[in-house]
Amino acid sequence: MEIRALRESDDRSRFRSGDADLDRFLHKYAGQNQFRHHIGATYVAVEANRVAGYVTVAPGHIEIEQLSPAVRKRLPRYPLPILRLARMAVDETFRGRGIGRQLLRFVLDLAVRLAVDFGCVGVVVDAKPGAVSFYEQFGFAPLELIEGHSQARPPATAMFLPLSDIQAASKKK
Ligand SMILES: CC(C)(COP(=O)(O)OP(=O)(O)OC[C@H]1O[C@@H](n2cnc3c(N)ncnc32)[C@H](O)[C@@H]1OP(=O)(O)O)[C@@H](O)C(=O)NCCC(=O)NCCS
What's the predicted TM-score (pTM) here? Predict the structure, then answer.
């Protein structure tokens, strides 16, 4: 299995994750967002020429008040750059084979590169209710909500993994 940037020639039409929004995004919007609008970047896990999973990322920022006191301690009081994991899904045919884990590790490696090249204090994901414990396994913890409620339906949990934890985990590998 290979993880690489989405190509215009990739056939996305057969992808079925069981989540209609995540499927529609890959079928209709991931290409134009990436190649025309540059809103985000999608990476695909490809097996035998088939898209088995995908993840979409974009740079963003968080307010320091959203971080736990332990993480916020040494950081300045202005918006902090992060890498946002905007969407991730694995095709139902390919579930439970470690593809989600590999896509997430790929994103954590991207965050380390972003930190070196442009600055990045960690990765943020808006986790769907059924995926919160998936992200917890990797050390993600809920962020404080600072303004109003999430507009996501069903409501999502904003979760954060600090860059220092990503670097510590990659040293143990
Ligand atoms: C969540 C998702 C990406 C996981 O993909 P996957 O390829 O099946 O996951 P993996 O095989 O890499 O699983 C890695 C580990 O996470 C666990 N896991 C998988 N899905 C999980 C979930 N929804 N909740 C909790 N743990 C989960 C696996 O049991 C495995 O644990 P193990 O290492 O102890 O065996 C996939 O189930 C999916 O596409 N779900 C629908 C869309 C979705 O919820 N996306 C996330 C949006 S925020």
Answer: 0.94
Nearest to 45 by CA among 83, 17, 84: 17
Whether 99 lines ligand 1, by a CB cut-off of 6 Å, is: yes
pLDDT single digits (tens) 30-87: 999 999 999 999 999 999 999 999 999 999 999 998 888 888 888 888 899 999 999 9
Q: Does domain 2-172 have CATH number 3.40.630.30?
A: yes
From 19, 105, 134, give the residue whose CB has the most ligand 1 atoms within 8 Å, as the site to mutate. Answer: 134
Backbone angles phi, psi at 152, to 5 degrees: -65, 145
Q: How does strand 122-127 pair with strand 80-90? A: parallel
d(CA 121, CA 54): 23
Residue closest by Cα to atom 10 of ligand 1:
98
Residue nearest to atom 23 of ligand 1 (CA): 131
